[in-house]
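name: query_chain
kind: protein
chains: 1
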Amino acid sequence: MQPRLSQPELHSARLRLREVRADDAPALFAIHSHPQVMRYWSYPAWTELAQAEQKVADIQRQRRELDILVWAIADATSDRLIGTSAIFALDLTQGRAEIGYSLHPDWQQRGLATEALRLILRYAFDGLQLRRMEADADPRNEASWRLLEKLGFVREGLLRERWNVNNEICDTAFYGLLRRDFKAG
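structure:
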């Protein structure tokens, strides 16, 4: 069965955004098992490669059954997965969706997340004709909310005590981006 919504491959000089493949599981595990990456997520760090293998299978199933787009953020030269980004909770009738992202710490602080999200947001606004994107970030995760604000997202609210991860109660800052406010760079 074909995916419900086609997902284009997106490119920049440094990145290739493509479908997630089964052979990406070890690199995905390296990201989602890293305490620094998972510090502000809504679930704890993975402890077994089987969790990454299951996630790849889940992504592939979701692509067939739901309107969700999940990109492997890959280094353009090696094609190695260095992060992921997803557009989910997609409502084409309402012209809105949510975006999420992660990047392995070895690849952070180079502008790659900004580069990847700009490609995806450009596709969301121009290709899918969305008028609004939403994202949430733990308010303590300064790198994440600074990235969102750099792209034009506006903090629209705070959801208090939204998550319980590793017995820690966490808030969520909610962000919105309108097509007209997107900073394509």
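note: Residues 108 and 122 are 21 Å apart (CA to CA).
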